[in-house]
Design a protein that fits this description.
CATH class: Alpha Beta
CATH architecture: 3-Layer(aba) Sandwich
Number of helices: 10
Distance between the termini: 25 Å
Radius of gyration: 17 Å
Shape: globular
CATH superfamily: Vaccinia Virus protein VP39
Structural class: alpha/beta
Largest sheet: 6 strands, parallel
Helix content: 25-40%
Strand order of the largest sheet: 3-2-1-4-5-6
Number of domains: 1
């Protein structure tokens, strides 16, 4: 279960004003809106989420690194848990057209507004109950999703990842190493429910039997 970082380059491309999210005193209201995961979260006001989650090709380098690192080949089955609009899966399949891909997300809006080419491979559902048979995927990824779950669902979801995979997996969650990063995370986040240090995350991985790779996002 090694630490492998494929996400920092993506994460640091976005400049964040951490205090902006709390400056107007309506953070709780904005978080409640974001947790609907509808248009306002994906494509509405920046204070409610992404402020416009559009395809711009930025996921292509990460897709290439994942394919190369995990030795993915035509015919391999790949699942993205928390796929959003499916941009990363789209890039992976564009690089390796023979991949058999599925994406899962709880947001009907995201799935309806996914890239047309990848939309047929996306399913509506929750990570705590993956609608797939045991050992049905050669590679599973979950990027900036599982920290949105309360602990009881998080632990179930990690066990579900183990149940449906027969190969490797890679997940990315938010974390903090000091009080400054903790404050930045609390200021910026809208949907996060699992606020853990790296050591706490590793304890949870061990307790649930999660055997895949992982990396953390820090708000420095």
């Amino acid at each position: 279960m090694p630490y492998v970082d494929f996400i920092t380059a993506q994460h640091t491309r976005t400049k964040r004003d951490y205090l902006e999210r709390v400056r107007n005193g309506d953070k709780a209201e904005r978080a409640a809106i974001a947790k609907r995961f509808d248009r306002e979260y994906w494509d509405g006001d920046r204070r409610n989420g992404y402020g416009g989650f559009h395809y711009d090709g930025r996921w292509q380098p990460m897709a290439r690194r994942l394919i190369d690192h995990y030795g993915l080949e035509d015919g391999h089955r790949v699942l993205d848990v928390g796929c959003g609009k499916g941009f990363l899966l789209y890039e992976m399949k564009r690089i390796l057209p023979g991949l058999v891909v599925r994406g899962l997300d709880i947001s009907p809006y995201a799935l309806e507004h996914a890239k047309e080419e990848i939309r047929p491979y996306l399913d509506l559902g929750h990570a705590r109950q993956l609608p797939y048979p045991d050992k049905s995927f050669d590679f599973i990824l979950s990027v900036t999703t599982l920290h949105n779950l309360y602990l009881y669902d998080l632990m179930t979801a990690l066990k579900e990842l183990e149940r449906v995979k027969r190969g490797n997996s890679y997940l990315v969650v938010e974390s903090y190493r000091n009080e400054e990063e903790k404050a930045n995370l609390l200021h910026w986040q809208l949907t996060c429910e699992a606020f853990f240090t790296p050591e706490e995350w590793e304890y949870i991985f061990a307790e649930t039997g999660y055997s895949g790779d992982y990396s953390f996002i820090y708000f420095e």
